[in-house]
Amino acid sequence: MYEPIRSPSVHTPADDADFPHRSREEELDIQLAGHLAALLAVTDELGLGTAGDRIAEQVARLRGAPPARHAGLTAAAPADLHRRAHALAGRALLVAASRADTTAAILSAERMDAHAAALADAAPSGRLVGAH
What distance in Å separates the CA atoms of residue 60 and residue 96, rounded to the nearest whole number? Predict the structure, then answer.
């Protein structure tokens, strides 16, 4: 009654593909290294040498090579840089937690706290940070 299917299904996995595959852990390592490298750039722009050195150690551990460091100045206000660094540290914390990297997670949480404190110190008195 029915003719048999002669072509392979589109749902058949392509196990013999010619391109390289990465594991979930490798993808998370790449993502974490990218977030930390971006945080390093902002940290260097803020002139936070010791914090930058600690971040650079983690990037080197994840990538297997030390990161390129330079203070690419964007002429952004320090408060804007602290906000950006806080957001990047938060992203790094999420990825570090998902890959169970305690060292990177602790470092990211410390950087989030430091940038949040810097933002609180920079806020004018009587005005809430982020309030409209």
Answer: 15
| Residue appearing with tokens 């914390």 | 93
Distances 120 to 33, 79, 124, 127 between C-alpha atoms, Å: 28, 10, 9, 10
CB of 80 closer than 8 Å to CB of 17: no
Question: Which residues touch 85 (CB under 8 Å, ≥6 apart)?
Answer: 39, 42, 43, 46, 111, 115
What is the pLDDT, as a whole number, of residue 77? 92
Q: Say if residue 111's pLDDT is above 70.
A: yes
pTM of the entire structure? 0.79
For 114, the enclosing helix (H) or strand (E) is: helix 102-122
Question: What percentage of the chain reaches a pLDDT higher than 70?
Answer: 81
Pairwise CA distance, residues 123 & 2, whole Å = 74
Amino acid at residue number 37? A
Angle formed by the axes of helices 24-46 and 49-63, nearest 10°: 160
